[in-house]
Amino acid sequence: MVECTQRLQDRAENSCIRETFQEEKIMAGTLMQRFREQSNPGGEAALLWLGQMGLLIRIGKTVLCVDYYASDAENRRVPPPIPAEEMGGVDLFLGTHDHLDHIDHEAWKTWAQVCPEAGFVFPEMHRPKILADGIPEKRALGIDAGGEIRVGEISIRAIAAAHEFLDRDPATGRYPCLQYIIEGGGFRIYHAGDTVRYEGMLPLLREFGPLDVALLPINGRDGTRYRRNCIGNMTYQEAADLAGELSPRLVIPGHWDMFADNSADPRAFADYLDAKYEGRIPCLIPEYLKPILMTTESVR
Questions:
Q1: Which residue among 34, 108, 172, 218 has the highest number of C-beta atoms inside a 10 angstrom radius?
Q2: In angstroms, rounded to a whole number, what is the distance separating the alpha carbons of residues 298 and 212?
Q3: Residue 9 belongs to a domain
C-alpha cells in the first residue's frame, strides 16, 4: 500500500494555512540546528521538504539545500518554513534553474554571508547573475548537462531539464535548466527540478543506477498558464509513469503547494501511482519540516 500523508486539509484556504504554519515557523531555527547535528547511526540520510521543490538533505556530515524559495510574497500560499538568515550550517546550495522559486537571488545573497564557506551549484550559463549576488568566484560551482561536481563525499551530476523546452543555448551549447542526481554515503537522490519528459531522458536517468529517492514536479501545464508565462512541468500522470519506470525506493511529489494558480493535487498523484503500479512504488506526500529518515534498509 502506498504510504501517503496529507497535512493541508483545504489547500484553497490560504489564510488558514498561513496562520497554522506560524507556530511551526517559530521552531524552524531549532529544527535546523537539530537537523545539522543529528547523529547518523548506520549510515543514515535525512531529508526535510521546504515546499515547492525545496529540499534540505543531510548525508553524513554534509548538508545540502536544493531549490529553496526562502523569500516571502503575497501570492505564496504558505510563508517560507525557515527564514533565509537561519540557514547557517549549509555546505552546498543548489539551484536547478533561474526562476525565483528555484534560485531565490535575495536568499542567495543572504546565504553568501550566513554560510561563508558554502558552495553554490547552478547551471553554468547563469554564472553572471550568480556572481552579481555576491557569490565569490571560488564558491560559484557552475555545472552543465553531463557534468559532475564533487565536494567531499558528495557527488552532484546533472542532466538537462525541459521546462517546457530544452532551450539549449546555440552559442554555448549549455542548458538553462537542469536536473540533479546527488550521491553520497551510499545514497542516490534524484531532484528533477522543473521539467517535462523528453525523448532520451529516461535512458539518461537509468544510467545512474537504482534511486533511493525521487522528487518530481507534478503541477502540469496548460494553455492558460503558458499564455501568462507560467511555464509548466510534468502532469501528475506523467510524473507517476516516470516513477513507475524508475522504481525508486521512495517518490515524493513536489511543486503542488506554493501557488494557488499553479498547483496540483498530490493525492491524485499518489492514487494514480498506486492504481497503475499496484503499490510497488512507495510514495510520501511530504509535510513541511517533518524529517524523512533513510537507511540502506528502510525509510521512516
A1: 218
A2: 10
A3: no
